Amino acid sequence: MKKIMVVGAIIVDNNNKIFCAQRGPGRTLENLWEFPGGKIEEGETDIQALKRELAEELKISVLVKEVVFERTQFEYDFGIVDLSTFICHLQNGKQPILSEHIASKWLSIKELETLDWAPADEPAVKKLMRVGVLHD
User: Residue ranges of the alpha helices (H) in 2-85?
Assistant: First the structure.
């Protein structure tokens, strides 16, 4: 089965709320919630891919905490997704602009469980609920 290397951003604002994005209809995993990001292209590092995807999808730039927060593999019918999530903070105070998602929410950690998450994102959600957003 095909392995798909992807990255996701756990974007945290100044109030420790986390940005959650809902996938659009007609797309794989439609209407499920996710941490935004996408596929790693050949020659990119995880962090380069994450910054590129967020600039393309949400028109934002972020500071990325360079340690992987959670790494998960999940087997879907279309392939095995290998997802690395990173804690990120918005730069320049610019808010995300949706281009590929149909909805977004800023939620507290305890509110994350109210959403219907894509299976590959669920371990990161559970870890956030267990340990919170780690600070340096």
Answer: 46-58
Evaluate if residue 130 carries a pLDDT over 80: yes
Separation CA 97–CA 94 (nearest Å): 9
| Residues composing the chain | 136
Q: Is 71 helix (H, G, I), strand (E, B) or coil?
A: strand
Tokens encoding 65 = 């905490």
Predicted TM-score (pTM) of the model is: 0.94
Q: For the chain, how many helices (H) and strands (E)?
A: 2, 8
Superfamily of domain 3-131: Nucleoside Triphosphate Pyrophosphohydrolase (3.90.79.10)
State residue 134's pLDDT score.
65
Instruction: Kindly give, in sequence order, each residue whose CB lies less than 8 Å from that of residue 123, ignoring residues fewer than 6 positions away.
Output: 70, 72
What are the structural domain ranges in the chain? Answer: 3-131
Closest to 93 measured CA to CA, from 123, 118, 60 = 60
Mind giving me the DSSP string for 85-98? EEEEEESTTPPP--
